[in-house]
C-alpha cells in the first residue's frame, strides 16, 4: 500500500478500536465541566456538541466550557461536550456527526481532511502553540548525538508529535521506518498515560511528548533535551486548533461564530489571569478524569504553552510537508482546509486585526 493509504488504514483502525472499546464516541469522559445553563433565545440550532481532550494543550476548551465563556455566547443554544484521548477518534466522531466541532492537533486535521477529500471539515480558529518537548534519560543521553540507537516514545503512529519526531530524526541524518518505528532510532508508540511508567521501567530512554507528560517525566529525573519551539520561526507552531464539520458550518454559521467568540474570550482570560487559568484547567481535569495534576507539574508545564486565536496557518503546511518528508504521506492538498471568515468577523467586531490563512482558505 502507498504510505498515505497505509497510514490512513492504521489511523482508521485505531479510531475504530477506541470508539468500540469506549462504547461510543467520546464516552471516555468521566464527568462534565459545563457549569452555565443556556439562557435567552437559541441560535439556529437548539444544541451544539463540541469535543476536546483533557490535556493542557486544550486549555482553551477546558476554560471556555468550565468558566461559561462559550455557553454565554451561545445564549439559549445548549452546549454539550465529549472528551477524547486520541485525534483520530475525534475526527471519526466529527465525520459520523457525533460532535459538531472539536479541538484537535494538526496531524489528525490534515489526515481527516485528506481522507474526506477536502469536503468533511474546516479549521476555523487557533487554540494553542508550543508545549512539546523531547525529554530524555540524562544517564543515557547527554547530547543530540546520543539519541542515535536509543528508544524514544511518541504518543501514537501519525499523530502530531510522532510526525515531528520522525521529521527531526531525518534532519539528523538517521534512518527510521516510519510505519514500524524501527531504525537507527527506535520510535516507540506509547499512549501518553503510559509514558511515565514506561520511562520509570526503563523500556524507553526518552519521549517526544506534549505537556504535561513532559513535565511528569522531568519530575521522575528526565531532562529536557529540546523544546520543539526551538525548531520553528518565532518559536510558534500550531499544537491545537478548532475544527468544524463542513455540514454544520454550512447550516449553522452563527453557532460556529458564537463558539469561536467564546473560545477567544477564554484565550483572553487565560492570558490575562494565568494563575486563575491554571487552577480552572486543573479543576476541569479533575472533574473529567478523576485526577488533578500536582501543582508543581502544571506550573512547570505552563510557561511553554501559548494560547492564541491565530491558527498559525503557515505552520500547518510545514507540518504536512514534514509528514511527507518522514514518509507518512506521499501527497497532500491543503487548499480549502481553513475557513477563517467567522474568526475574522469576530476579531473585526472586537477591534482586532484579521489572522492570515497562508493561502489555504476555501476559494
TrEMBL record:
<keyword id="KW-0732">Signal</keyword>
<dbReference type="GO" id="GO:0042626">
    <property type="term" value="F:ATPase-coupled transmembrane transporter activity"/>
</dbReference>
<dbReference type="InterPro" id="IPR044527">
    <property type="entry name" value="NrtA/CpmA_ABC-bd_dom"/>
</dbReference>
<keyword id="KW-0472">Membrane</keyword>
<dbReference type="GO" id="GO:0005886">
    <property type="term" value="C:plasma membrane"/>
</dbReference>
<comment type="similarity">
    <text>Belongs to the bacterial solute-binding protein SsuA/TauA family.</text>
</comment>
<dbReference type="GO" id="GO:0042597">
    <property type="term" value="C:periplasmic space"/>
</dbReference>
<feature type="signal peptide">
    <location>
        <begin position="1"/>
        <end position="24"/>
    </location>
</feature>
<dbReference type="Pfam" id="PF13379">
    <property type="entry name" value="NMT1_2"/>
</dbReference>
<protein>
    <submittedName>
        <fullName>Sulfate ABC transporter substrate-binding protein</fullName>
    </submittedName>
</protein>
<keyword id="KW-1003">Cell membrane</keyword>
<keyword id="KW-0813">Transport</keyword>
<dbReference type="InterPro" id="IPR010067">
    <property type="entry name" value="ABC_SsuA_sub-bd"/>
</dbReference>
<keyword id="KW-0997">Cell inner membrane</keyword>
Amino acid at each position: 500500500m502507498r504510505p498515505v493509504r497505509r497510514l490512513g488504514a492504521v489511523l482508521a483502525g485505531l479510531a475504530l478500536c477506541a470508539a468500540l472499546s469506549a462504547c461510543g464516541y467520546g464516552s471516555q469522559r468521566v464527568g462534565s465541566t459545563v457549569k452555565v445553563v443556556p439562557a435567552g433565545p437559541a441560535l439556529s440550532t437548539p444544541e451544539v456538541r463540541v469535543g476536546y481532550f483533557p490535556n493542557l494543550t486544550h486549555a482553551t476548551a477546558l476554560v471556555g466550557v468550565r468558566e461559561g465563556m462559550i455557553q454565554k455566547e451561545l445564549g439559549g443554544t445548549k452546549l454539550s461536550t465529549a472528551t477524547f484521548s486520541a485525534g483520530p477518534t475525534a475526527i471519526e466522531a466529527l465525520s459520523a456527526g457525533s460532535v459538531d466541532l472539536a479541538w484537535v492537533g494538526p496531524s489528525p486535521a490534515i489526515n481527516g481532511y485528506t481522507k474526506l477529500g477536502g469536503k468533511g471539515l474546516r479549521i476555523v480558529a487557533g487554540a494553542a502553540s508550543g508545549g512539546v518537548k523531547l525529554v530524555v534519560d540524562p544517564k543515557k543521553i547527554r547530547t543530540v548525538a546520543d539519541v542515535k540507537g536509543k528508544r524514544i516514545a511518541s504518543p501514537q503512529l501519525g499523530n502530531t508529535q510522532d510526525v515531528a519526531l520522525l521529521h527531526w530524526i531525518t534532519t539528523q541524518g538517521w534512518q527510521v521506518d516510519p510505519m514500524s518505528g524501527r531504525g537507527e532510532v527506535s520510535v516507540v508508540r506509547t499512549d501518553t498515560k503510559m509514558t511515565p511508567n514506561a520511562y520509570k521501567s526503563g523500556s524507553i530512554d526518552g519521549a517526544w511528548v506534549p505537556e504535561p507528560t513532559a513535565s511528569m517525566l522531568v519530575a521522575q529525573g528526565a531532562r529536557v533535551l529540546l523544546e520543539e519551539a526551538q525548531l520553528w520561526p518565532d518559536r510558534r507552531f500550531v499544537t491545537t486548533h478548532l475544527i468544524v464539520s463542513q455540514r454544520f458550518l454550512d447550516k449553522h454559521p452563527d453557532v460556529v461564530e458564537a463558539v469561536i467568540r467564546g473560545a477567544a474570550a477564554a484565550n483572553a482570560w487565560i492570558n490575562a489571569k494565568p494563575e486563575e487559568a491554571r487552577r480552572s484547567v486543573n479543576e476541569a481535569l479533575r472533574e473529567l478524569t478523576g485526577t488533578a495534576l500536582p501543582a508543581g507539574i502544571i506550573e512547570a508545564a505552563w510557561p511553554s504553552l501559548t494560547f492564541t486565536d491565530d491558527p498559525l496557518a503557515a505552520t500547518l503546511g510545514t507540518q504536512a510537508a514534514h509528514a511527507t518528508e518522514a514518509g507518512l504521506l506521499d501527497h497532500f492538498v491543503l487548499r480549502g482546509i481553513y475557513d477563517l471568515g467567522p474568526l475574522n468577523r469576530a476579531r473585526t467586531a472586537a477591534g482586532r486585526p484579521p489572522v492570515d490563512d497562508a493561502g489555504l482558505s476555501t476559494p
